[in-house]
Amino acid sequence: MEKEFRVSELKRQVILEEYLQKIRRGKKLLPNKHLTIITGLPGSGKSTVAAKIAKENKNAVCIGSDDFYALFPDIFELYKKYPSSLNTKEQSAQEHSAVESFINKNFEEAVAQILVGGENIILDTQPNASLPVYIETAQDLGYKVDVKFIAAPKRQIETNIVARHMDGVYRFEQALAGKRPRTGENIPHHFSQLRVPESYIREIKSLLRNINDSGADLEIINALNNEVLYSREQGGRPEKAFEQELSRPLTEKEKLRQKAALNRIRLIARRITLRRGKWKTTERPEALNYEAQTGHEKYYNHVIGNLER
CA 84 to CA 11: how far, in whole Å? Predict the structure, then answer.
């Protein structure tokens, strides 16, 4: 895969420059420089929040790390040929994928160029060790920095991830049938993000403490009800607010919303054909006694069934 879909450095830089021209178009420099970071677990609703803030701040340049996933050359053909490699966070797959390297390099360089340019910027990205670096760099350049960490109950996050993935698989099959363009917008997001290991939770809690100590204005928010779970004014510990929100049971209203989402997921699952014998399921389904190339229907039913418990 590495050689077959390799992207030259020149081509990567051309793609990055075209991306920067597009997101900068029509934006004006403002006297007060402002960096807003929207982050949180996959499926928590951070992209929805980022879009809302971008709409309210029309001169801010909005950069999403997922933007570059869709911009990887031949990403559609790559997904079609290697669905399992792109659909897992297994280390063995990542070592052989040029996609993650392409995304990370372009995202980091895009952020650096915008910050140096003095433009207002909104970042939509997952929590990672680079965030304190972005905060410190922006502060050194005279930016005011806000961090909005989007939190939600684990069951709600899982449902959102499954819904997003299933919708992506459906769009992918429509693209294969010629009903949609064969582009990066029409391939599924990682299904493997359903896994939230304890080690990652510990890393996020440590990251929240570091962000809080950095001087950035940190808030932890539930995107669906707009409840502020933590802010400096409220006091308390940000990592505790995150952990409590992640582990709390759904409210009755949230259960109704989840039920509606699961009904839609089941409807989409019935529409998916998944090219029997050619499409590989994710997450080592053979461990669940499902055949790796033909067990997708049982596997999806297993995942959806878990969400209903």
Answer: 26
Question: What is residue 147's three-state secondary structure?
Answer: strand
| Degrees, nearest 5: CA angle 308-46-25 | 145
286 pLDDT band (50/70/90 cuts)?
very low
Contact assessment for residue 230 and residue 238, using Cβ atoms and an 8 Å cutoff: yes
Under 8 Å CB-to-CB from 250, ≥6 apart: which residues? 153, 155, 156, 258
CA dist 308 and 259 (Å) reads 8
* Calpha distance 194→8 (Å, rounded): 32
Measured CA to CA in angstroms, residue 285 lies from 157, 282, 298 at distances of: 21, 6, 9
* pLDDT surpassing 50 at residue 279: no
- Which of the four pLDDT bands, split at 50, 70 and 90, describes residue 275? low
> How many CB atoms within 10 Å of residue 238?
23
User: What residues form DSSP beta bridges with 121?
Assistant: 35, 61
What's the confidence (pLDDT) of residue 135? 97
Fold of 9-248: Rossmann fold (3.40.50)
- The ranges assigned to domains in the chain are 9-248
Q: Residue 47's CB: how many other CB atoms inside 10 A?
A: 19
pLDDT at residue 308, as a whole number: 78
Task: Give the mean pLDDT of 15-37.
Answer: 95
- DSSP class of 32: S
Whole-number Å distance between alpha carbons of 35 and 140: 12
Distance CA 59, CA 247 (A): 37
Q: Quick one: average pLDDT of 157-182?
A: 89
DSSP assigned state of 119: -
